[in-house]
Amino acid sequence: METLKGEHIYLRALEPEDLNFLFSIENDEYLWELSNTQTPYSRYILEQYLENSHRDIYEVKQLRLVISNYQHKAIGLIDLFDFDFKNSHAGVGILVQELEDRSKGYGKEALQLVIDYSFNHLNLHQLYCNITEDNQASINLFTNQGFQKVGVKKDWIYTNKTYKNEYLFQLINN
Description:
Blueprint: E1 9-13, H1 19-26, H2 29-35, H3 43-52, H4 57-60, E2 63-69, E3 74-84, E4 89-96, H5 106-120, E5 126-132, H6 136-144, E6 148-159, E7 162-172
Parallel strand pairs: 4-5
Antiparallel strand pairs: 1-2, 2-3, 3-4, 5-7, 6-7
């Protein structure tokens, strides 16, 4: 699909060959705060997830895409979640796995592709995201793409024996 191709990266569906990539992300405790994960995932569970990843966004309310560079290396994931057809909105989350792949514009390009896809193909009215107050890179990424901070969830995330605030950002398609 041409709409999911950018200048430096493209977005694609999950494939069975992504098992090790997905396993490394889902079992990285450093990333658990981003995904509200508290336990590791087995390869078996992830294999089942991959087997069902072809299901339609209207059925499962989620779309997970792999961010790949043009050397076909998987560098991250971008998700639409809590897809609500009736109210025409969805959440969006993004992760570029390796530090050396961050700050190169891949996340920005992936986010712009998903915004365009969401508004032009899924006909969504708005996207939202939740970002902890100390995740400045994500705050910058989303605000630079037009998302506006519309709320604060006080003491929302408990991590490392402390509570963090979480910001709610929205992008409304006018």
